[in-house]
Each structure stands twice: as structure tokens, then as C-alpha cells.
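Data availability (excerpt). The following record was deposited with the supplementary files.
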Amino acid sequence: MVENVIQFIDWLEANKRIEFLEHDYASRLNLICKLDGLQKAENYIQKIPVSYRGEVVYRTLLVNCVDSNNSRKAEEVFNRIKDLGLPITTFICDQLLMLYRRAEQKKIPEVLAMMEKENIKPSLLTYRLVIDTKGHASDISGMEQIIDMMKAEGLKPDLMIQCTVAKYYISAGLNEKAEAVLKEMEGDDIQENYVTRKSLLPLYAALGKADDVGRIWEICKSSRRRDEYVAAIEAWGKLGNIEKAEEVFEDMIKVCTNVSAKQYIALLKVYVNNKLLSKGKDFAKRMTDDGCHIGPVTWDVLINLYAEAGELEKAGLILQQASQRTENKPYYSSYLTLLDKYSKKGDVQNAEKIFLHLKQAGYVGKLKPYQYLLQAYINAKTPAYGFRDRMKAGNMHPNKDMAAQLVAADALIKSQTSSLFD
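Predicted structure:
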């Protein structure tokens, strides 16, 4: 489909049917990034008339670098934007913050300092990203300082920020502060504000507030929205009230039209999270009987179900069957779940098998599988000969945690070698 769009655009351009402007070139560039990768996209930029190689074009390339988690290329593009004298906008800074939030949080202060120096005004997204970063690092006081700064700038925390703040308060055990945020979220129009109701259900459940979950759910019931039913199923499941979760699901089946696998999966996840293998198996069969489309999401949940129950062979069989489908491949997380379990057991043979299948599925360039695989060797007290070479071949660079793993793995090799001379 994308290839056809690109061919059509090429035809329009070649036959002078439309006159391309910078936004048109940027759209073409975006399609090339998605279909052919960043390198071909960069090559295409050289074909764009110089007068149209502006901020919109390079901003489009930067977004795709960030989406690909390619820090090196993103930084190259950012430096090119600076070298060309193009404007450094809030949007561009937010892209860098999104990139660094995932992997290189130590660089976030550099971006914020640059914004302050260049008098680049933070957006609501800027504050969201920094608040989330602070909360994720358990820096609650730092998170609160950012909120105060935002309010001083005349910006009011939106629903997403409120949910994020409440979540981190709960994680830190600051339940009173979390409740205060939730009450603020409710306001006076909770009867009409379904988006907020949907957000409150899991947060009250995380606080263990069954009465509040029930109260909000009673307000939700009359609207008959599927996403509110799903939120209620998840909330009751989080509280361990399986009967209530099942009751909400059956009510949804009766009153909602077009109930899909997505809604079924909500209850299946409840069974998984509460380690109810028998119920999960029966419900998975019901999904098939009811005509649900079984795809990557369902496979992922089922693999988790069996893996958590210790039935790794069954989980592996589901993964194998799913990987043979041509229309969709299993999620990266499905492979990682099994790899983690085999790693903890020190089952090197099966860990190597999952690692190979993961690479065959096209999930390359990620460090976590190497960490799990190496840990399998360490837990099995088996030397991982040539592991550093394997990492180099995969263009992998160890982080701090994996560097410690490699030291432990090297010790096993030395121990094995020394024992030959005892």
C-alpha cells in the first residue's frame, strides 16, 4: 500500500501534475523513512531543491530517527539543523526529550539548559516528558518542582499529567497526595466527563479503593462505552475481585455491540495477572468459539499465562505456532517473556533457541535479549565462550548492568580453565 502511494507521488512529480512545496517533500520523505529506512531517506534529501530543504524536511527526518530509537542519527540530524541555521523549535527539543527519556536520561538536563539559554518556551508536552522522567527516577520532589514551574508559566496540568503524577505518588506510597490528585481530576463534572472516569478506575484500584472503583463504575454503566467496561474489568482485576471483573464482562457482552478480541483480552489478562491458569485456558477457548480474531496481542497474553504458570513448553508451542503465521508475527515481548524464564532457570539450550527465533523474526539491535541469554549461562554456571564476539557481531555495546554480567561470565571461563590444571 505504501509502495503504491510512493509510486503515485513519483508519477505526479515526474509528470508535473503538481508543484511540490516543502511540506510535499517532507511527506514523501516520511514515507521513504517508513518503507526504506533512514539511509535512503537521507539520500532523498539530497535530491530535494535546496530552497525546499528547510526546517519541515529536517524535522520530519528527526521524528523518524526518534521513532527508530536511533540516538546517533537523531543527534546528527539535530546538529545539521543547527549548522544550517534553521530554527531550533520547541517541537525539535521535545523530540530530543522523548528520545533521551527512553535510554539516555542523563542528557535531558542538557536539552533543558539549551532551551533556557536559547529562550525556547517549554510546551505542555515538554513538561509531561520531564515530569514523567522525574517520577520514573523516583524523584518526587523534583517532579513537584516541575509542576510548580509549569503552573508559574500559566500552564495547567492536563489529564495526562495528572494521571502520571498520581501514578508516581502511588508508587512512592504517598497515597494521600495521590488521592488529592484524583479528587482534583474528578472535579464537579464527572457525570459528563467519560475520559476522566476511564482514567480514574485503574488509579483508584491501584490505591486499593474498591468503594471508589464501585462508585465511579456506577456512573459509567449508563453510558455503555466499551472502553469504560474494559477499564472497569482491569480495575476489578487489579483489586483481585475476579467475580466483579467477570460480571462487568458479561454485562458488556449483553449491552454493547461489536465487542472484539480487544475487550475479551481485558478479562484474559485478569486471569493471567491473578495466575488463574484454568480459568484462562477455558476463556481462551471461549474466545475462539465466539469467533474472536486471535492475533499477536492474544498470543502475547496466552504466552504470559502459561509462562507464569510454569508451563514453558506449552508457552513455547504457542510462540512457535504463532511465528509460522504469515499475516502477523508475535510481539517482541512474547519472545522476551520466554527468554527471561529460561534465563532464570539456567536453561541455556532453550534460551539459545528462543534467542535464535527472536533474531529470525527480525527483532535485532536490542540489548535486552543478550542480557537474558548471558544470564542463562551464568545461572547454569556454564562458560559463555565467545559472547563478547557475538555482541560485536551484533553491533551491541554493553551498558553498566551488562558489563557486570560479562565480568561474572568471564569468571566462569577462568574457573573452568583453571580446573583443567588442578
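Summary of structural features: Residues 400-419 form the longest helix (20 residues).
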